[in-house]
Amino acid sequence: MPTEPCPHMMIINKENGFTLKTGWHLPDLRMYVFVVGSLLIFLAIIYGNSFFGEWHFDDYHNIVNNRTVHVKLLSWEEIQKTFYGISYGTEKQHVSRPLAFLSFGLNYFWGGAEVVGYHIVNFAIHWISAIFLFLFIYNTLKLPLLRDRYGQSAYAIALLSTFFWATSPLQVNAVTYVVQRMASMAGLFYVMSMYLYLRARTASAARCRIAFYSFSGMCALAAFGTKENTAVLPVTLLLFDLFFIQGVSAHSAKKALKWAVPSLAVVIGLGLIYIDFSSVLGIYEAGVRPFSPMERLLTQGRVLFFYASLLLYPIPSRLTFLHDIDISRSLLDPWTTLAAIVGIALCLLFASVKAKKYPLLSFAVLFFFLNHLIEGTVIPLELIYEHRNYIPSMFFFVPIAVLMVRCLDYFSYHKGIQVFMAAGFALLLAFQGHTTFERNAVVSSDLHLWLDNVRKAPNLSRPRINLARHYYEAGMYEQAYGELKTAEDLNRDTNLRQIGIASYNLGVYYLYQAKDIDRAEHQFIKALERFPGYPSAIVGLATVHLQRGDIEKAWTLMKEQAPRHRNDAEMINCYGLVLLKKGNAKDALKAAARTMELKWNDPQPWEISGEAWRKLGQWQKAAQCWKEALRLDPTNPRAHLALVELYDRIGDPALTRTAVRCMALKGAKPMDEWLAELEENSRVSAYEVNPGQLGRIIRREIGRELTR
User: How would DSSP label each residue in 214-270?
Assistant: First the structure.
């Protein structure tokens, strides 16, 4: 009698298509593999030149110099600190984008400050986001309400729209600019939550529904724990359910309104948790922004249409990091303000009235505007950033993909036209990918980023300030001065404090390059007028006092300001230096220790500690501190000279080797001239150079070395 084979003994053969029979089913496996693989290959091609890019702008403040995310041990204490972002240890310490900062901490744990690891993680996030976006669009188009209209072309529409979204040059800042992982990772959790909600609403088994709802909720919380703009997700899910699950009708609309109240309550509640409204008002009241809340709101209408135009027409000449946009002072100034508001109103009206007839198009319109809501209202953020389109643009290309697929279908009777159109669409995608590749080449280099920005927004001050830094570091002081002077004279930015930075940097130029102390002091005072309480400008003034030999005046300034800026490494460094000049070595050591906590890679607190220990007669401790300063800055001549003096005092055999390095550092200059130049700035440095004593020691050691 024939018997049924045991399921556990099942073999593969031609009857079962050479596949194992399992309890779970993966429909269209080849299709999914193609999507995952093709996205990976195409994105790797257009983003491959960004992996070895550089740190930019807020990367330094949030990652490179933020010791909170420098996780060295995977302990709960270390991990918990990352949840507070840059506010940890301050008076206003609060949880801020915890998952984003945790991801930076884990990146640091595995690879330190090597930027390539951060870029690879950002790329992976973008790739996985694209996969989940495809799954969401594809399964949405196969829902009962849309199946008859889009079911047969669901794969083509989902694939095409996903590729256009993933390869859009507007996503470059969210992927290549490391700190904007906050935007891309929030987008990943956002689209995962939507996809899992869809699966929950279409699951037949109660157990599956509960599991999918739970995972969707977890992803929603993760999205909000990454960036605040995802707080609108409950409203997005409500609209999705209304448009594609229930279907738009009078009954479903009334039902949706009942759920709208708790959804909005969740959004408002999350906002109250995350947003410090007194701080928001304080930014406006302090005059940080050159616009009022109403002016910002009016301007955002034009910004949203500009975003849409960039998504549709993303040529390189229109893309930049900091855009220059006129502020809308009234409905008619400029006139496009009213036009933009009317345009938005018409779009929203169309999406509402035609939701039943064109649910896909209506949802795409509402999705775009809804997900710009938080960053596009009265919160005093910058007016415009390209990375803010990461989530809002996720459904933007779906109607466009539908139109493309329908055009191909319409001309199915003529193969030549169809091939021509398909080639055109592929070429359009290739052109967009090439633009993204070019944009990555620009964004990968910090110097090229600001050169590009100055060329495209010549009337903005901030790009010139950042470009001047590169000129200054390269020793091109006149070019740096020119950019800073232009930036100060333009006085145009959406953050008026930035102009104070231009004035401060000009003060640095006058102090160290032009050797004009009076003009340097004038610039530091001007910087404080434009940026009240700016720590660097206060330090600049204290440095001027020290340069003049007026230690008491520097002490008066530091005594008043340092307690107000306990978390500013530059301020505490200066405080420690002034204490050292006053002869208070013990308190100088405490200040230096605090600076080391704030900025681990700064050699100056080690210099202050080294000189403080020397003044206290602790020669070995002093030498250890100066060796650490030298490790952090191997070309520091003062560290070498301080060690020469200390090694001579304690009889360390490393004295000769250090003296030889001093000879190499001075180059072609005569020894006495080199030492005299270093002596000039001794008033503003921890170690005071004694040319006569050091010259004798170095010559003696070099003489001994030559006679061996």
Answer: HHHHHHHHHHHTT-GGGGGHHHHHHHHIIIIII-SSHHHHHHHHHHHHHHHHHHHHH
SS3 of 167-210: CCHHHHHHHCCHHHHHHHHHHHHHHHHHHHHHHHHHCCCHHHHH
Which amino acid is located at 526 in the chain? K
> Do 221 and 355 touch, CB atoms closer than 8 A?
no
The answer to whether the CB of 689 falls within 8 A of the CB of 638 is yes
CA distance 95 to 97: 7
pLDDT given for residue 418 in this prediction: 82
Q: Tell me if residue 89 falls in helix, strand or coil.
A: coil
CA within 13 Å, CB half, 562: 23
Q: How many helices (H) and strands (E) does the chain have?
A: 33, 0
Collapsed DSSP state (helix, strand, coil) of residue 372 = coil
Report pLDDT for 622. 95
Residue 280 has a pLDDT of 63
Helix, strand, coil share (%) of the chain residues, nearest 5: 75, 0, 25
Domain segments of the chain as ranges: 29-271+291-417, 603-708
The residue behind tokens 């398909």 is: 422
Distances (CA, A) of 442 to 55, 206, 317, 607, 636: 13, 51, 12, 38, 33
The residue count for the chain: 708
Q: For residues 275 and 258, give the distance between their C-alpha atoms in angstroms, rounded to a whole number.
A: 26
Q: Which of 396, 440, 498, 467 is nearest to 174 (CA)?
A: 440
CB atoms within 10 A of CB 552: 11
Phi, psi values for residue 249, rounded to 5°: -155, 170
Name the amino acid, one letter, at 239.
Answer: L
From the number of C-beta atoms within 10 Å of its C-beta (0-12, 13-18, 19+), residue 247 rates as: middle
Is 278 strand, coil or helix? helix
Name the stretches of the chain with pLDDT < 50. 1-26
Q: Beta-carbon neighbour count of residue 238 at 10 Å?
A: 17
In this prediction, residue 433 carries a pLDDT of: 95
User: Are 17 and 105 contacting, i.e. CB atoms less than 8 angstroms apart?
Assistant: no
Q: Are 603 and 633 in contact (CB under 8 A)?
A: yes
Determine the 3-state secondary structure of 662 from DSSP. Answer: helix
Q: How far apart are CA 179 and CA 54, in angstroms?
A: 12
CATH fold of 603-708: 1.25.40
Six token digits for residue 404: 């493309």
Q: Peptide bond preceding 634: is omega within 30 degrees of 0, i.e. cis?
A: no
Which residue in 677, 664, 672 sits closest to 696, CA to CA? Answer: 672
Residue 120's nearest CA partner among 136, 133, 103 is: 103
| DSSP label of 88 | T
Q: For 440-464, give one letter per residue: b (16+ CB within 10 A) or e.
A: bebbbebeebbbbbbebbeebbbbb
Measured CA to CA, the distance from residue 507 to residue 498 in angstroms comes to 14
